[in-house]
Amino acid sequence: MFVMELTYTAPIEAVEDELDAHIAWLDGYYASGVFLASGRKVPREGGIILAGGVSRAEIEKIASEDPFTLAGVCSYRITEFIASKTSSDLAAVRENPVV
């Protein structure tokens, strides 16, 4: 599983200009089952996306295709982790680590 942390690198007005395209991009990955949750940071200096079911290379490609990335208004920090314990709602993405 991945935590995709976005940090805005441009004024919020430039981010807002790309928001509709970004939301459409998010919707596509929700529909495919890759994205599990997302939202703005507080204060509004970026966002967080939880994603799973793909490789590190795939998640980096997905981040590179974000309209925010393409417009140069954000940067990504991607952290991979093993979701060994989850709520029952996320049981489908729970992972059993190899010991």
What report would you give on this structure?
The structure is a single chain. This protein has 99 residues and is of the alpha+beta class. Helices cover 32% and strands 26% of the residues. It is built from four helices and four strands, in the order βααββααβ. It has a four-stranded antiparallel β-sheet with strand order 2-3-1-4, covered by helices on one side. The longest helix has 13 residues, at 19-31. The radius of gyration is 14 Å and the shape is elongated. The model has no long low-confidence stretch (mean pLDDT 93).
Fold topology:
Blueprint: E1 2-8, H1 12-17, H2 19-31, E2 35-40, E3 46-51, H3 56-64, H4 67-70, E4 74-80
Antiparallel strand pairs: 1-3, 1-4, 2-3
Could you list some keywords that capture this structure?
alpha+beta; 99 residues; 4 strands; 32% helix
For the CA atoms, what is the radius of gyration?
Answer: 14 Å
Mean pLDDT: 93
Order of helices and strands: EHHEEHHE
Strands ordered across the widest β-sheet: 2-3-1-4
Low-pLDDT segments, ≥5 res: none
| Count of discrete alpha- or pi-helical segments spanning 4 or more residues | 4
Strand portion: 25-35%
The general outline is elongated
